[in-house]
Amino acid sequence: MSDVQFSPQRLDEILTLVKRYPKAQSAILPVLHMAMEDFGHLSIPTQQLVADTLGVRLMMVREVVTFYTMYREKPCGRNLLEVCTNAGCMLNGADELLAKLCEKLKIQPGETTDDDMFSVIEVECLGACGGAPIVQINGDYHENVTEHHLDDVIAKGRTHDPI
Amino acid sequence: MTTLFINEEEVTVAAGTSILEACRQSNVDVPYFCYHPELSVAANCRMCLVNVEGWPKPPASCCTPVSEGMKVSTESEALVKDREMAMEYLLIHHPLDCPVCDQGGECKLQDYAMEHGSGKGRYLEEKRIIKDKQLGPFVTTSMTRCIHCTRCVRFADEIAGTGDMGVLNRGDHMEISSVVDECLSSELSGNLPDICPVGALLDGPSHDVSRPWEMTRHQSTCTQCPQGCDISIESRGQDVMRIQPIEGSPEPWLCDRGRFVYDAFRNESRLLKPISKQEKVSWNDAINDSIALLKDKRIGIICSPDWSVEGLSAIRLLRDTAFKNAPVAFDLHRRDKRSFAFEEGFSQTTQQIEDADQVVILGSDLRQRLPLVMQRIRKRVLADKPVVRIGSMRYRTNSELQKDMLIRPRDWVSVIASAIEQVMALGKQAAGMQAWLDATQDRHEAGKVLADALLAETCSLLVGEEIRCHNDAAALIHGLDLLMRGCGHAEANNDGRNLIPEGMNAQALTALFAKDRMSVSDIFEDANQGKLDAILLIGSDPIGDGLFPVQAREALKKVALIQIGAIQGEISDQASVLLPASAYSEVEGTFINMEGRVRTAHHPLEVLGDQRPLWKIMMRLLQALGQDIPAVSLEELRIHMHRFIPELTKVDDKQQDAIFLSSARNRKSILPTQITLRTLDVVSRYSMYREGMWARSSELLRGAGERQKLADVIMHPDTLAAQAGSIATLDTDHGQYQFKIDVRDDISPGVLFISKRGIAGDISNVVSVDINGGSA
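Structure tokens for the assembled complex are given below, as produced in the milestone run.
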């Protein structure tokens, strides 16, 4: 058994969820989201936990995790900034925005700052092109993002306040 | 049945067949990579596109079932273009390293690139490179060559049942991977390179040493287990390069034991020159020395069951002519000494076992013992057909069994008795049941599992080594026979009684030696008591294998040993004379597998050194003993063989799968006997990587065996509060032994599992022990 364990409440939630599907295997996607919520990222022991909980093989979980980009296999910082660089955002200056953001935090896309406060990822279309350029910060959409807005975000993030 | 038209030819196939399979059956060539008849359909290579009249676009033929009147065409201008485009995609990241690739010359990608590719690539961007993987001791990888057909993934999932391979990432980043770089732990791993259509998964041991077109192929029969698979031994000059399965054989796969044993064909343990008194001598001297030890002496014959039937017939001729009353033994695991009390062999084919309503595995480590039968069992389990097991250990399997009962070997009588009782309660009777019951006292709950399974329309019993090696084996088998008869399973040659033999040719050995057979331990006992002068050992190794190494060593202090064989074993140091005989790969001959299926080897490997076929050695000995020679050629020998086993006359090459030899039955009533036992039952464990002289001499198999190794002496933690690592003193009928104990909870409490390695092998003949102490 691995050291990672779901809490009893979480297990209840998973069991209820599994009942909605014809096979436990079908619940891999939502359970992975739950695991990521609980443990921050999906390490191999966490993936093993999901596999054991659902009674599927580890490889099946691995295939799903690596297929979708929104599952994180590596730990990320306290604040996760996902910058869209797809067509709409690109036209509205997402590339420059991303470059500035990286410069401010002194990291490359896909990396985490040394103090573990910020991670930056380049993502594909988030479906909010009306507000391009868009940055998803800790799951929330921030539309029409400017450099100034990013400064605020970084300052707030450093103070441990919610952004 | 469905009738359709393929390229305007009318074809009739079973309903539900795929178009691709219909094309394959009617010899129409459709290119494909990812399809494999034994695996599920993935339809991801897109090579097998065909046109169907009236359909807007070409479907993948592997996943499209046929329908009545369908008009399929496999050639058109559009298809030429489609295939060219599919090839272009598949070849995008594929390196151009055919000249150094092992697959070159037998590569589907190479062939199809030639046939369907465009000849010139348009892709000028950077090609990607994938890190190679660890897939066990027998598979070398070159993952950059992979075209993602996922045959290996499906193989690991569906056939090997280990499921430790998969496809990671997506699109252009897609790669085949194993779980966190762990190795593939399957006894069928050698098949991976075969199913890989390109050079990504390669045969490890034959990596970088030869090219397919340099090989000479020798069709032969594997004798490494009673399954007797058809094999194609590939050689270059004197060297054996690899062993491959033969397409269209009864079993689609080969196990690692049969495939990689070949490195023992050409190593220093092969016996190539006659040896007398530890020195190499000429054949004449060796024969003279043998005759001095054999002529007018009382001898015991121990032979391996794995010789060709011709070889075994020659042994019979030698015995009939020169040593009239010599005892013969051929199985090294028989404790039950009653002659012709039971004879091994299957009454069903492996296909019939797969199709039966119920299957019961009785005391067998089937996955190691008969990996390809286990494969059939796995297919059943995947199809939700029941399989239950009774035995003294939950031997590792690759499938979930419906019921898995743990018992001690001493419980077999009560299991069968309880089953008989339950069957009788339902009014199913067979003459002799009551007498059998009356001879027993205890009942065991596992009997219900057996009884329930037997009530089905068809039921296969796979009777394994725990019963075969039981000291009361004949009574147990008689009990099972009664059960089968009582439950109405009496159809000739398909009653479902499958007694897993120790080696090949079980049915032939019965015909040749049934009345004279003894247990090998009897021969050693006779030798110890001075009733024999010499032992003629033909091809087995009673010290390295079997239950009686201690008795063998004792006996050989008293009598001379003349060994005839293709390979030296642990016993060979003790032989006065060693005569080199050709191996199974080097003879033309007939073999019979456990199902009674007859195989003939036609095109043997070149004979090495001074070896002679076994039958010639037998004839030479007869000549030197001053007897008439019954046969001077293989044809003449076969006349004798046909006299001994008349069924074999019916066999011809074209229909060798149509004839099955049935195994002999003993109809006499044999009742269980009560014996007093010590507290713990001893079970001797079988390992496919070390049992048999060939496997032990093969470095490849030894390496693989190390990975699967369990401790020498293991028991359940509840048994006398056993602790891992403690030293226990065992009291046996032959004295005291000390062993380090390991514990596992998949073993039945009250059982001591021992391996045949090292000193633990010394107590393999012991049926039960008392345990003393358990100091850490």
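Chain B touches chain A at residues 163-170, 177, 179-180 (CB under 8 Å). The two ends of chain B are 69 Å apart (CA to CA). Further analysis is deferred to the final report.
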